[in-house]
Amino acid sequence: GSSLIHQKVALPSEGVGSPVLSFVQLEQFNAVRLVQSIHQSLASLSKVIRGTSLLTADVHKLATALLNQE
């Protein structure tokens, strides 16, 4: 849950273990980074909706994409 959002992740080192293990570690790294990025974007949008933050071009672009189901 929330521990994933705040988890510190480091790029897996190359050449350690089998190629399959390296692939799985890289996929886990990318998945955690993706979840963190989505969380950060939605948190920014939430702050604008609640009126605690100003609308930026990035948040506007995100809101437009969500409204257009993109």
SSE topology sketch:
Blueprint: H1 2-6, H2 19-50, H3 57-67
Helix pairs in contact: 2-3
Please tell me about this protein's structure.
The chain has 70 residues and is an all-alpha fold. The chain is 69% helix and 0% strand. The chain has one domain (2-67). Residues 13-69 form the Dynein heavy chain C-terminal domain. This is Dynein heavy chain C-terminal domain-containing protein. InterPro entries: Dynein_C (IPR041228).
Q: Short description, anyone?
A:
This protein is an all-alpha fold and 70 residues long.
- Strand-residue fraction? under 5%
Shape: elongated
Oligomer kind: single chain
Distance N terminus to C terminus?
Answer: 25 Å
- For the record, the count of structural domains works out to 1
Series of secondary-structure elements, N-terminal to C-terminal: HHH
- Radius of gyration, rounded? 16 Å
Largest sheet: none
- Total of DSSP H or I helical runs spanning 4+ residues: 3
Q: Assign a percent range to the helix content.
A: 55-70%
pLDDT < 50 runs, ≥5 residues: none
Annotation, overall tally of beta strands: 0
What structural class should be given to the helix and strand makeup? mainly alpha
Query: Mean pLDDT, nearest integer?
Result: 91
Protein name: Dynein heavy chain C-terminal domain-containing protein
InterPro entries: Dynein_C
Pfam family, one: Dynein_C
